[in-house]
Amino acid sequence: MSNCILKIALDTPLDRCFDYRWSGPTPEVGQLVLVRFGRREIVGLVVEIKNQGDTEVAQDKLKDAIALRSQLLPLSTKWLALCGFAADYYQRPLGEVALPSLPKNLRTLKTTALDNALSKLAKIVQQHQHDPQPVSMPVLNLEQQQAVSVIAGAQTYTPLLLYGVTGSGKTEVYLQAAARMLAQHPDGQILILVPEINLTPQLESNIRNRFPKLMVATLHSSLAEGERTRNWLAAHLGHARIILGTRLAVLASLPCLKLIVIDEEHDVSYKQQEGLRYSARDLAVWRAWQENIPIVLGSATPALESWQHAQSGRYQQLVLRERAVQDASLPTIKLLNLDDKNKHQKANKQDRPVEGLTPELVQALEARLACGEQSLLFLNRRGYAPVIHCDACGWISHCTRCTAFMVLHKPEHRLRCHHCSLELRIPVACPTCGNVDLHALGRGTQRIEENLQQRFPAARILRIDADSTRRKGSAQAAFDRMHQGEVDILIGTQMVAKGHDFKNLTLVGILNPDTALFAQDYRASERLFAQLMQVAGRAGRAAQKNGGNPSEVFIQTRYPHHPLYEALMRHDYEHFAHTLLQERRQASLPPYAYQAMLRAEASQLPIVLDFLEQAKQIEQTIAHQGIIVHDPIPMSMTRIANLDRAQLLVESPSRPALQAFLKIWLAALRDLKSRVKWSLEVDPMDI
Ligand code: ADP
Ligand code: ZN
Ligand code: ZN
Q: Residue 571: how many CB atoms within 10 A of its CB?
């Protein structure tokens, strides 16, 4: 029994912890505790235990904590330190970081769900063994062997960039390194992060097949609460030896962590875009440092930040230059000039054209259909057409609530805004002049699907995008059909670009990637390159069949001499990264500078700009070194869902200087009286 003061972190926007009195069983740091806060009862986290008088709260104001959650083993001080670091770095209260990272069932008033999860888990644990010996393993090639032995041989903090071309067998390296790590550490745990678990079911089944006796737990946001609680507990109690998850899993409680793997480390999905705007990759690197263990960052197109670290020697680089499967080679990449009208007209005489596709691409599709190989067409624009238009009066389908167009969705008979989800029936006539002859301008995936089906009526054509996969489980079912060879031509958005190992795919057509070439965001070309390299990498992953087609990628463009496409054609990430890094250095942009973005929104733009202007003025009252606070500017898509949005960029060549400045600046911002809703993002991804 003890009488003491508990310092407790609560999930509130207030940037501090709260003191409560406790008399009862001896508490521990890291325990969950039920307290009264205002009129509510909520669950908090004990972060410090202090002597009875050790509080600034007056005795008559001091409240008693209600109960400790003693059935749950306390969270470790290491885990608390991880949350503390995240809170500090991303400028959020500790409670807002730590508590939402726990499954909801741990934070409810009643403990029934937690108790149920614990007893269910106890039964599952009995079915598993601690034997990490895998069912059989493929023989690694030399580069893979080297990578595995460096990873498994690392006994201390070792950040490793596994730079391997698409299809080079990075997954196999993760699996065999994991096997060796688990053999070395009988209780060890391995955390594997992937950008989006629904798009990479293959990895999960590979892991389960490889380690059939081990407990593998998944952690991602689409799990049902009960399962999420169970899996989280399995990790927390050390039963789960491999934890496969999306970004939120980086904050899981892992008492015996020995290795972290970040697959596709460049992927922007690792950055959370709301609330705690953290980068799971960056937190994972910190966590590896804290645990003094190796971390593997894998990619064919590493983020420039990671690449620069590898160049400077801060990260050790492991390279896989060849495709792993014998006789599988990287596809040939060809650029098809959309402006090459003469050539197209000649070709059109013999061939029936498909709107939106060059004749060369149509011929290439025919060649695949003829010998039973699969093709993939990539177009990052869902819907039928991005806009409809009236030729008579010039009316165009604007969204009334956003600076955006309403997109035509033909199968659903709707116009949809992709930003505020406003939906309208397709107008039968122009709303301004009554003209019934409205035109769909441009092409989305639905229109390509329709055109192709007309041209190849016998072909089995499948579209995968956010619209075709709304139902739970439908994306998985669609990918299964593709893997089982029930599809001849797959049309899709970025959903089809990631990770999939399609064995019978020999052709990739990239229909209209040009728009991203001239985007404002300085990261646009880095991202476009990575995305196209990923999509291209879906072709030719198995050995070429006898009499089959060579693996090919066709990119349709108006700018065939653009350096980005030229680098892509040569599969030359390294040269491209070098050029981009030079540009970044000259312009003092990340990774050579550190940034934070203050964003604000309100019903009217002047209110937003006024707030940001005040925020800018505050800078002059703070002593700092080398901080640049830019002018407020409206965002390029200014209005979304009737709110006007603007932003203010803060930059510094020094990360500590920026951190110190942000702390003081934010405290002042919280005191500003304003009707705007604002947020701060450290290391913003979208500028
Ligand atoms: P990446 O993740 O680098 O794109 P994958 O891990 O998906 O590549 O591997 C591509 C293909 O190569 C897979 O079909 C995989 O089974 C195969 N593979 C990997 N390593 C080997 C190996 N050592 N020998 C034969 N095939 C391999
Ligand atoms: Zn009109
Ligand atoms: Zn809208």
A: 18
**Which residue owns the Cα nearest ligand 1 atom 23?**
140
Other Cβ atoms within 10 Å of 433 Cβ, number:
11
Whose Cα sits closest to atom 4 in ligand 1? 167
What pLDDT, on the 0 to 100 scale, is given for residue 344? 54
Ligand (nearest to CA of 391) = 2
Q: CA-CA distance, 317 to 330, in Å (whole number)?
A: 21
Amino acid type, 358: T
- Token pair 């505790």 is found at 33
Whether residue 164 has its Cβ less than 6 Å from ligand 1: yes
pLDDT at 482: 95
Place of tokens 């090639």: 141
Q: How far is the CA of 641 from the centre of ligand 3 (A)?
A: 6
Residue 352 is predicted with a pLDDT of 76
Q: Is the peptide bond before 359 cis (omega within 30 degrees of 0)?
A: no
From the CA of 325, give the closest atom in ligand 1: 26
**Residue identifier of the C-alpha nearest atom 9 of ligand 1:** 169
| Listed residue (161, 153, 165, 169) closest to 317, CA to CA | 161
Sign of CA dihedral 157, 153, 251, 26: negative
Mutation pick for ligand 1 pocket among 171, 203, 210, 322 (CB with most ligand atoms within 8 Å): 171
Q: Which residues share a beta bridge with 388?
A: 440
501 ligand 1 Cβ < 6 A: yes
Residues by chain with Cβ below 5 Å of ion ligand 2: 390, 392-393, 395, 430, 432-433, 435
Tokens in use for 545? 């069949």
Low-confidence ranges of the chain (pLDDT < 50): none
228 burial class (0-12, 13-18, 19+ CB within 10 angstroms)? buried
* pLDDT the model gives residue 555: 97
User: How much is the pLDDT for 328?
Assistant: 87
Counting from 1 in the atom list of ligand 1, the atom nearest the Cα of 139 is 23
Say which amino acid occupies 256. Answer: C
- Residues with Cβ within 8 Å of 580's Cβ and at least 6 positions away in sequence, in order, are 304, 525, 526
Which residue, by CA, sits nearest to atom 20 of ligand 1?
169
Pair 460, 491: CB distance under 8 Å: no
Q: What is the pLDDT of residues 664-677, one digit of tens each?
A: 999 999 999 888 99
* Contact (Cβ atoms closer than 8 angstroms) between residue 267 and residue 232: no
**Token couple for 388:** 């409809």
Cβ pair 125, 153 in contact under 8 A: no
How confident is the model at residue 630, as a pLDDT? 97
In angstroms, what is the span from residue 398 Cα to ligand 3's centroid?
8
| Token output for 146 | 């080297």
Q: Quick one: pLDDT at residue 591?
A: 97
Q: Is 143 in the pocket of ligand 1 (CB under 6 A)?
A: no
Q: Which of 354, 355, 372, 376 is nearest to 363 (CA)?
A: 354
pLDDT score, position 545: 87
Closest CA to 1 of 68, 63, 47, 89: 68
Q: How far is the CA of 412 from the centre of ligand 2 (A)?
A: 23
